[in-house]
Amino acid sequence: MKEHRAGLDGTLSAFTEELFAQLPRADQRRWARSYLQGLLATPGKKSVRRLAASVSSSPTASQSLQQFVNASPWDWEPTRRQLIRVAERHGWARAWVIETAVLPKRGDHSCGVHRRFVPSVGRTVNCQLGIGAFLSSESGDLPVDWRLLLPEQWGDDTRLCERARVPESARSLPLWAHVIDLVENLAAHTSFPAVPVVTDVSDYPEGVCLLDQLSRLGRDFVVSVPLDLPVLPAHSRPSGARRDATDAQGALDVRRFLQWHGTRHPYAVTFTTPGRQQQQVRVVSGLVRLPGSRHTYRVFAEQPSEGDRPLRVWITSLVDRDIEHLTALARMHSGTVSTLRSLEADYGLLDFEGRSFPGWHHHMTLVSAAYAYSRLFSTPGQSPQLDVYRRTSDLYHV
């Protein structure tokens, strides 16, 4: 049992050294490893005090961990880039899924905290809003990058931002701009060809801006949009100088478009549920363009039973892909939502204790690293990469 524990400790040390190699001091790398170990081993709430107690008997461990996360000026971006490389060694992502995380908070001093109506819970909550980038495949989702949305009141208050150490470049960017930033960062640091971007902005007034920017970047996408997004049937494309005037007329929301212009005979798509059961859904689809645009897109939606309104409508640039492929990409979003719930329940996503912008990013980076380690390396005998880390662990002494 002790040999098994020593093997895991050596693996975690090697993993930490690879991810945090840019940290100049051995004590920083040691506290990074301790924080990861605490996130992996501490049950329940992952407060700094409880993390420290689970990894050290020193009375100053809690203070040192707090210092490392909140005050130490280390750059989280190199660690996240390395996390992308580690994740890609285990396989080729089928999609880049971007998902929002509502992080409830008490009080109004945490960086970016604000009151927001959350449709999933049906009420307004005091929270931070994180936007995460996940490398997603059939085997799971790995979070590799994060952004923190700052509401207008934060962007307008220079003193508040300075106190929370918020850089000028991060102040009051809209949600769609954070999504684009995450996509561009992934594209810059991935070693594989770009894959479709999958995200859900159906609860945010971000649809048109996001679709326009993704199209400008030449990025393929599958995006869930609000049901009232205005669209035009693709075949009604106007020409010449009359395009803008015509676009102002005849647009209808995407839900009505599918009801009136969608496929007469819905596609039957069979997929496997997480419980390994076969399930069939009906999918309606059609080609559209957005008012003021010449791009043609495909919209599609699952309809569980006859006459039901679609619960979620997707729009995609992949107009020539078959419906089975598009439906599978859209369903990857559900897997990412499940991963997010696991990050909240088991890896301390909601448990950051601090008020600063760098502290928040430090914590989210460490949470992502802990989850990646748990998925990729913590079960002996299941991953060949685990043996690589074990063989190299004697090189690292943290």
UniProtKB/TrEMBL annotation:
Record-linked InterPro entries: IS701-like (IPR039365), IS701-like_DDE_dom (IPR038721)
Residue ranges constituting the Transposase IS701-like DDE domain according to the UniProt record: 18-241
Q: Which organism is it from?
A: Streptomyces rectiviolaceus
Protein name, please?
A: Transposase IS701-like DDE domain-containing protein
